Amino acid sequence: MRNRRRTYNVRATPPSLFPESLTVNSIVQARGDWRSKRKCYTGSWDQNIPTDLLQDILSRLGLKANIKASIVCKTWLEEAVSVRKLQPRPWLFYRQRRAEHEYSPAGTYILFDPLRSQQYKLNFPELERNHGIICSRDGWLLTYDSGYALFLNPFTQESFYLTEGSPYKRSYSLAFSAAPTSASCMVISYPQISSCASVVIDTWRPGETVWTTHWFKNQLPKRIWGKCVFSNGMFYCLSTCGYLGVFDPSKSTWNILPVKPCPAFRGRIPVLMTEHEGDIFVIVYTCKNNNPMVLKLNFKRNVWEEKKDLGGLTVFASFPSSFARAGLSTEQRNKICLSYRDKCGRYDVSYSVR
């Protein structure tokens, strides 16, 4: 669906905060002497692939694609495993409770490493007021306070406010596609409560001096869009009625997917949403059997499917963001790690999904 745009002029963001561009090295030819170049792998397609070129190609694949490539043959398996990059476990970041110490200044937060069970106390003057964490991605947090949005990296302690004039306001929320230091970063402001004839989505990229406003015809009035994840170049927004709206930044379009509503919303139960390499998951927590329900979107059939296992993934679930990781230890796979207090009063527990 096409839209109309309007821009607002605002004060420029300091250009020194962001690189002009991020480049990726191109795939290079085989390196080394003539002996290494002679060692090639021949596939059924009758093409020769030099050893180092094969390694270079496999090293650029994500974990999911790397695993698929490893089943081609024994040689590909060996090379794929040798360059496989495992995904790290996410860390927890939360405000320090006053009860934990006799005194803690405003803006004191805890950064917790679940792998080593270590915590670090950090002070962020930028968060001394009542900043709320909207979402997180690639090590960055997006927070807000009194209509102003702030990017914060707890690991490097870098922080900066988004361009003045941010359209963040009550009944709206924010999401972003990548770290703000990346050339592919985009921030969107989308309505959580859609009650008018139009859906209004504002977009901004680091380094831009304006927010761009998009108007779309509201196909589902009076809906609440409570969850949003970025996957495959698009923002997926899930309504409390189970409908899935998609904003495509490259085409500036907003559409409702022709998918039967997600059966996750049944009463006031916690519902979380995450993605992993193009797959969209919805997790529903209930007290029944102490087991959450996991739903995965089947894009080919346009249906939500309940999954009995996570395909080896580990989901770290929390508000406001949840993450899926692959390649963790065997005992950690097919598990959902909960890091907030659920409806039954449980906190920091794990569920096995098999």
TrEMBL record:
Residue ranges of domain KIB1-4 beta-propeller in the record: 114-342
Residue ranges constituting the F-box domain according to the UniProt record: 48-77
SUPFAM superfamilies tied to this protein: F-box domain, Galactose oxidase, central domain
Domain of life: Eukaryota
UniProt-listed PANTHER family: TRANSMEMBRANE PROTEIN
Protein name, UniProt field: F-box domain-containing protein
